[in-house]
From TrEMBL:
Subcellular location: Cell membrane; Membrane
Pfam families named among the record's database cross-references: TauE
Protein name: Probable membrane transporter protein
Cellular component GO terms, alphabetical: plasma membrane
Keywords carried by this UniProt record: Cell membrane, Membrane, Transmembrane, Transmembrane helix
Membrane association type: Multi-pass membrane protein
Organism: Staphylococcus equorum
High-level lineage: Bacteria, Bacillati, Bacillota, Bacilli, Bacillales
Transmembrane segments: 7-38, 50-71, 83-101, 107-124, 158-182, 188-210, 222-240, 252-270
Length: 274
């Protein structure tokens, strides 16, 4: 019973926070599963690979549920966001296959560094002015949101492919969905408006999670008994997160999230050397 309660809390909370900020929630699920399973034996059969693979499967539901919610409010730029999938999809499959080489110590070190980098990105994302280097007519895209406001931004295909191939690889490797890096990338480099970046990020998380999950399922990296409970909790959590996104300032959630990631990142790095 305790296991079920823990899984419900993990799935629900990660989906709520992930859908509000546009990161999916895998960045919370993976270290939590490892902490409970590997370090405290509260969850049986958990290894870094199984935590990553299980998280990838959960993110399919979180990504789809959030995307459907954001589509209703016109916060998903399907046409322009799809350009990023050319790099994200193959990258996420590559990362999933590479995850087999992770040991607990190497996972703690690399994921800890990754968490700190993401937390820093979340801290400075509103302070960095969007790059204007790609502002050329041939790269210009436009999108009209739910309020009827039209936005213009640039998405150079080659730059988008290279950046998203790298992010996609990290997505599959760590089971984090990619939104933690895609949202800042869209805001800073491609100059997406914040609310559209969040919704579009969740769409990409849905597709990359399908690809990375395929790689993990083939390798037997999914704990299905845990995944079922997490999926149900994530479904309701994601729906709630989309609603909350409309009513509160996401800056408050971002502050809590980046603080959590910074502390967790430092903890994992120290743990890798002990």
């Amino acid at each position: 019973m305790l296991t079920i309660i823990l899984l419900i809390l993990i799935g629900g909370l990660s989906a709520i926070l992930g859908s509000i900020v546009g990161i999916g929630g895998g960045i919370i699920i993976v270290p939590t599963l490892i902490y409970l399973g590997v370090e405290n034996n509260l969850l049986e059969g958990i290894t870094p690979q199984i935590a990553i693979g299980t998280s990838s499967v959960i993110l399919i539901v979180t990504g789809l549920t959030s995307t459907l919610g954001y589509l209703k409010t016109k916060q998903v730029d399907v046409k322009n966001g799809s350009i990023f999938l050319f790099g994200l999809l193959p990258g996420s499959l590559i990362g999933a296959l590479l995850s087999r080489y992770l040991t607990l110590e190497s996972f703690n070190l690399y994921f800890g560094i990754f968490l700190i980098i993401v937390s820093i990105l979340l801290i400075i994302r509103n302070k960095i002015k969007p790059f204007k280097i790609f502002d050329k007519p041939k790269y210009e895209r436009s999108y009209v949101d739910g309020t009827g406001k039209k936005y213009h931004y640039s998405v150079p295909p080659l730059v988008a492919f290279i950046a998203t191939l790298f992010i996609g690889t990290l997505t599959g490797l760590f089971g984090i969905g990619g939104g933690a890096l895609m949202t800042p990338l869209m805001l800073i480099v491609f100059r997406f408006p914040p609310h559209v970046a969040v919704g579009t990020s969740m769409m990409m998380i849905f597709f990359t999670s399908i690809m990375s999950s395929a790689g993990h399922i083939v390798q037997g990296h999914v704990a299905w008994s845990y995944a079922i409970v997490l999926i149900i909790a994530s479904y309701f959590g994601a729906k709630l997160g989309v609603k909350v996104n409309q009513s509160i300032k996401s800056d408050t959630v971002v502050f809590l999230l980046r603080t959590f990631m910074l502390i967790m990142g430092i903890y994992l790095i120290i743990k890798s050397f002990l």
